[in-house]
Amino acid sequence: MPIIEVDNLTYYYPGSSKPALANISLNVEKGDFLLITGPSGSGKSTLVRTFNGLIPHLFGGRFEGKVLVKGKDTRYCSVAELSKTVGIVFQDPENQILTLSVEREIAFGLENLGLPREVIRERIEKVLKDLNIVHLRERIPIELSVGEQQKVIVASIIAMMPEVLVFDEPTAHMDPLSALKFLELVHELNKRRYTVVVVEHRLDLVAKYANKIIILNNGRIVVKGEPRNILPSDIAEECGVDVPRYIRFFKRISNLAKISRYPISDKEAAETLKEVLGYGGSY
Amino acid sequence: MLSLVSSVYEIFVFRKKAKLLYNIDPRVKMVQLIVTLIAIALTTNLILQLFIMAYLIAFTVIGADVRRILRSIRTILKMLIMFYIIIYVVNAFPQIVNLNVAFQSLIAIFRFFMLIYSFSLFFTTTQLDDLAQSLCKLKVPYHIAFTLTLSVRFIPTVAKDFLTVYDSQRARGLEMEKGSFLKRVKKFLALLIPVFIVSFLRVDRIAEALESRAFGLVKNRTFLYEVKVGLKDIIFLVVAITPLLAILYLQYYPIYF
Amino acid sequence: MEEAIEVRNLWYIYPNGVVALKGINLEIRLGEKVAIVGPNGAGKSTLIKHFNGLLKPTKGVVRVFGVDTRKTTVATLARRIGIVFQNPYHQFFSEKVWDEVAFALKNFGFPEETIRHRVTKVLRLFDLYDYADRSPFTLSSGEMRRLAMASILAYDPDIIVFDEPTVGQDRFHKEKIREYIKLLSSQGKTIILVTHDIDFVVEEFDRLIVMSKGRIIADGAPREILYNEEILTKASLILPQIPRLVKYSEIPFLLKHKPLTEDELLIAVLSILRGDGGRC
User: Fold this and answer.
1) What is the CA radius of gyration of chain C?
2) pTM of the predicted model, to two decimals?
3) Tens digit of pLDDT for each residue in B160-206?
4) B25 backbone dihedrals φ, ψ, rounded to 5°
5) Residue C54: its chain B contacts at CB < 8 A?
6) Under DSSP, is residue C250 helix (H, G, I), strand (E, B) or coil?
7) CA distance A104 to A122
């Protein structure tokens, strides 16, 4: 059974005559790394908010079709209930930090779940160690850098031990190096058996980690599949998706040199380039 | 503007320290604060007010981060001198020199200073989450008590927004110093409206974060650090309140030396 | 060319004690197109706020068109140097798009007729004329950014500074911003762009200034700097996409020619394929 199932979902924000999402159907299997991308306003953020019930419960509006999380219909579960299974890290850390110390920030969700004190303490220790932020324990979260803040948020969510982690443009406010490190962390979490859903524009940094990609445009799924097949497609280009530049480059020379397999990482791209130029890549 | 906001933040923010006041139950400290405020408000005798100041200093030295408080004093001082001048000028008018007014204004400013000092002492030594928890134990519903913590948590954020808006508008030629009173009020709208809007937009995002962290799921949520009134706190309460009560007593039943 | 901005030994310390700028020396001439890059916290925003006097130096001097910024007002400086800040929500307060654009013009005391003329012109330029009577808050995020730009360009400053214009923008909107910058530059405006989006500055900019921890650690031609991994690492930046590809490929000809864009890479690759590229 897929861990998240979206079945012909159509959603209208309150007072809106145009659907934010139209006839969306998709499955997320356990262990997936699903990448969701598309131009601004295409419905990406709306879609992921249906995974933990924020839509329809917090936002209201007209909700047609259904979303099942571990078989349960999200219309009949509260967001708080669903947060045990699906955790979301949003774009701006400033709005997700709710307390005045890192330790308490991590404890917050666990306290809300009503877990016993010893369990909370254990989980805090574990998550501080896992994410290498033990030294930040007593710090005031709003005084940290953006990268550190997002890490603290991730820690707070993982401590709740959800099965699915959703990231909505998590690197929007980060500089490139922080973004790279953060997405590596997301990849690590995926390797550690978390199912991961990431909404991102910076495809050059994250496409190589994903086993599935979905492109949204105007509230609809335009195409879905494996990044390697989807990114070089004309549809991706037409939708204005930020296709990695090496893919765009290889498409342009595809009539000069045969590209048997499009690369989706810098290393693969380098090998492909060497092959094209007759330097004999090992790929 | 920037330095004002920055110093106000420093005066109130909590940083953990292993000193006495940091480990006393917030409810006890709240009682201490309230009685102190009453004492400050009701005493009119300068000598008694100096006693209150001595009381505050004593508690600072034995229970709080002295260096921190000294730093906050330096910043309040500048503000207070300005207020003093305003109050003096307003009350002495049309005279230029009036010793009585000078003295009375000094007392007023001193009182104001002790007020801020007391609050600062309280907030810098109290974890707001603990304060919220104490309020819950006093039967205040959690989501209301939590609003307190959340509001304080967002004060620096809103202040930062305000400064950003101020910069943006000045960069478009807005000059707050010029113009008639009415014009200046209108100009202030150019500062106020964006801050309000940004704050309202934030509310949605914060609500999402709260919901996603299971806020409100369970009737009796756990508190990681339990706030309990123990023997230490009771003793502290007695020791803290007695001098204040004595001062209040002397205010109404003065002993003539 | 005249010196538009001159910065000499600029130090800036925030009231909370943070030393944000440590001895900055810089000259920007009229008509230049400069990108200032660096990680969050490097001091980029602090630096540009000195250009219009929002911040005054703790030590050192900043001169704009020869005038010491400490000896004049923000409004006077803002008249010649416009800053488009990152978040449009931090400036919108009017009931109509028209008023938002007219705001700066009114502050600077332009006559009514000129205001009408300028606002119309700039609204048309940014495809916002049809929205003139609408509330700024009903616009989409891309339209809001255009409005923010329009509100600055309306009063026609000589120098335009963009503070992180591409944060959170999709490809289409980034292209639009790039086009506007090109247009402004072709009109002789001095452009300063502050960003950490290293891929955005690969085209269009003849000069790159790299900041890190309050200092300028590089100032020169983009081609040299964007292939210099040492400088970029110090500035917590990564190589832009095409240089990254070239670096990983280790192909000497390409490393020598340092292509920055797909077009340049294409030319270099074609030249190798034709045989005049030295395939050692």
Assistant:
1) 20
2) 0.88
3) 899 999 999 999 999 887 778 888 888 888 899 999 999 999 999 99
4) -55, 135
5) 167, 170-171
6) coil
7) 13
